[in-house]
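Consider this today:
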Amino acid sequence: MSYIQELQDVIRKLHGVESQHVESVPVKETFQGNTVWEGIVEVFELKGHPKANRAYAWAHDGEHPQESSVAVLHIEPITSAAKAVRAALIQEFRSLEPEES
């Protein structure tokens, strides 16, 4: 199974729809002058999703989507690969913060 097919499988599992690969987009996200994420985001056209016609997906290690992948739907305000990465990073950062008592 190819990398793209594995990401399509992740999209199917997470969002319940089939997808078609559209393009690969390089993204570099920086914060305060430091690179916090750099990689290739795969863009997929979704078939039959009730709210989104596209999804952005990538694997953290770039090779094993089944183990460490992210799939973000194209729903306002997520309208680009870069915004999908930014949203995923913010969510990941928030999940690392200690909960307040």
